[in-house]
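A protein record pairs a chain with a discrete description of its three-dimensional fold. The following entry can be read in just this way.
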Amino acid sequence: MGMSSAASLEGLPDRSITDYGDSDLRRTGVRSASGELGMQARVTAFGAHMVIEAWGTGGEIERRALRPGLPTIDIIFVQEGSFEYLHGTSWLSSAGPLMIAPSGLPHRVRFIGAWRFIVVRIPREALLPYVPMLADQVMIFADLTVSERSMQAFLEQAVAGKELASEDESRTVDRLVLDMAGTLIRGRQSGPQQTGTPNAVLRERALKDIADHRADTGLTPQNVAEHVGVSLRRLQALFAEANSSVAGEIRRERGRVARSMLQDARFDDLDVAQVADQAGFGSTASMRRALGDLYGLGPKELRTRR
């Protein structure tokens, strides 16, 4: 069975724009401590993921998901406002511009004045090639990296026109957002070595080298270590800190590229062997095994279940 899109999991078409008013939001499990919610939302679906614009005035709201445990992840950019959230029995303040959380978690929030968020909701399964293990907790960050600011700007522009995207546009946005989201979560979920530290910078250099050279079927972890100027042992230790491995990231990157090619109609003139070669796999058999492990689908299924 193929991966369900974030929109279909919530009963929406995969390519759609849906506006939510007060009564609509109440039906999704949102409640206000003062009666009126004072908030609105617009959901734009682009294939596998969807972008949620939400805004409102100050006040306390509680969201008890009608379908807890949704198999999706939310990346939330705070465009305006600050808030407090209930953690156990204590209210904690936050003005952080970025949150990552499993969708559907019950939560209680007090907004301080006017607020506006933009959220991208992505199936967890789509992110596994980037991050083997996804944290089941709310993470809040005090600042944004350059790439995260770029992702926020891209999301804002993607929904700025308010018109429904074409199928080709939707596929393009879907692929770009997935790549940006996967990179963001991989960087933020890398454990104590956070983005900007020497170890994290070195790990990102290695990941960039893997992306640059993944088409070389002879690429090995030793090659990557030599390219970034460290010993193989040290590089392996850095990836182990992030619950990954150099060989695993090479395979994941090749699988990601193969999947993108198989799901893009522009590459339909390539046979499976050519896709495997361009993605960097030494054989169609190794590509089939990787796609099966990463996505649970083979080349034919990925092409027919776009």
